[in-house]
Amino acid sequence: MTVTKAPFGTMPDGRDVFEFTIENDNGMKVSVLSLGATLRSIILPDKNGNEQDILLGFDTVADYLEKSSYQGAAVGPCANRIGGGKFVIDEQTFDVIKNETDQNGNGVTCLHSGGEFSFEVWQSIIADSDSVEFCYTSPDGLNGFPGEMKVQIVYKLGQNNDLHISYKAVCDRKTPINLTNHAYFNLAGYASGNILSHVLQLNCSQITPVDAFSIPTGELMSVAGTAFDFTEPKQIGKDINNDEEQLKLTGGYDHNFVIDAADGTLQKCAYVYAENSGIVMNVYTTMPGVQFYAGNFLKGETGKSGTPMEHRSGFCLETQYYPDSPNKPSFPNCIFDAGQEFISETVYTFETMAD
Ligand code: GLA
Fold first, then answer.
1. What is the CATH number of the domain that holds 216?
2. Which end of the chain, N or C, is less packed with Cβ atoms under 10 Å?
């Protein structure tokens, strides 16, 4: 196992951004940036022995800052959406940034906490021969979130082509904590076109259906008999354009799936397979939900090596507390007391199948 550190670029204010590359003895390589603790590349051989980078992303700091769509980024303090950009804790209302707007430009919802964790430079150290640790302190009140929060994220690559992301956070005030990573995967390689032929299985028999602003209604909806049924392996593109209300509201899959086996320990939530590369990914997490997002908002932005990020050319599986949990008492609780530690882990494992 080796870890190397190299300059990646500089922030507009001159701060350095570094790229760390962890390589295991099979030649699998994972690289992570100190900007946004961003997963930038995952490289492994396909079934023909050709190296594939299976993550969408960019070649420069400026691109990560300007066109990001949260590519590979850590997200927090509270991932996904908060309805109305407000929540109440102990009878005090907190107004947070409303960075999603309606057609008149009025702020409506808070998405990914306004991007705070995703676009900041994190402190970084090579923690061991297989891991890199990132730390960040979120100032009290930034984007409206209460308290000063100290966050640590560790990326560790194992010899079984297993990538572990471990999250820890603690705040000095009571606050929502919901950390995730927003990697866009394309298991046939980032330049291979759309992901509609990928086969996906989600160990999830319910989703949290949403309204027109992608805020959960608070109900749980069974996937049985709907386009959302991935309980058996199914091509992502098979039903994505079905005439179903939940799909039309979001322009394709962009929903939180309720992980059936969730119990706070690592449980398998997803299996994905791309036949043209033979690459398989399995996802395990300690979190109760996973946002399956089919890259519906990608519209040709130029990514790595000049490759356009076409509509649905990458998919995300963002492990998380359910969206808008701070306003949904029936959802698993994401409000942490002052001093109470948030701990979670997500593991992605990879293998390559021969024909
Ligand atoms: C999440 C959301 C999507 C979209 C992406 C970022 O996956 O659920 O609606 O906002 O982040 O583009």
1. 2.70.98.10
2. C
